[in-house]
Amino acid sequence: MEDSIKNMIVVGVISWSTAFLVSRRIFQKRSYDFSNRIISTIHAILAVTLASISVQDWKCPMCPVASKSSLKQMEVLAVSLSYLIYDLVCCLFGERMNMDTTIHHLVSIVGIGAGLCYQKSGSEMVACLWITEMSSPFLHLRELLKELGYKDTPLNLAADLLFAAIFTFARMVAGPYLTYVTVTANNPFLVKAMASGLQLVSAFWFFKILRMVKYKLTKKRPTSINGTKHVNGTK
């Protein structure tokens, strides 16, 4: 791994941590998780933007396969690797830490780290970053809306459905294809393991999201009539 990339990762971890502390200062009345999700949303938007800029040819976004990573691709990956390290530590002190989130972060950190060390598979890993972060802003938006008092509102339902639709397309349509391309190409073992591991976690989350959507669409939501809350379907 090049020294400049190592420096970017260190500076990135410090920068994300500082941004979180600033967010905590600004949103003092909000929860720890609220501030963390603000930073996560910023990263998701930044990651998708940088990944899009680094694409060499939009006629074949994942080309060239199993090739030497460009400097731009490694810089994009370094930004996200630094975020994942920050977020893994941050989640240890919050309420978002669970087994599947931990596995997702560890697999991503090891996979991206391996790709940066080998300086290979940049196209595949940037494409993976683009796919996995595409739905993240809506994931965090739905939780932010709840804390802002918009739980069980049409706005929150719209965020839920947008997140579910984008996640399904990205992780269960584009994701399996990218996994196949990565695994069948001459990529390092750890990069192949990352692709397979992330796809398994995505499939697990997909079934959880299906249950969430079913619950949301069948749940009776409260409405307000003359200042009095009622539940749809009841008098």
TrEMBL record:
TM stretches of this protein: 38-56, 76-94, 161-183, 189-210
TLC domain residues = 29-218
Q: Which domain of life is it from?
A: Eukaryota
Subcellular location, record wording: Membrane
**Could you tell me the keywords of this UniProt record?**
Membrane, Transmembrane, Transmembrane helix
Output the InterPro entries linked to this UniProt entry.
Answer: TLC-dom, TLCD5
Q: How does it sit in the membrane?
A: Multi-pass membrane protein
- UniProt cross-references to PANTHER family, sorted A to Z: TLC DOMAIN-CONTAINING PROTEIN 5, TRANSMEMBRANE PROTEIN 136
What name appears for this protein in its UniProt entry? TLC domain-containing protein
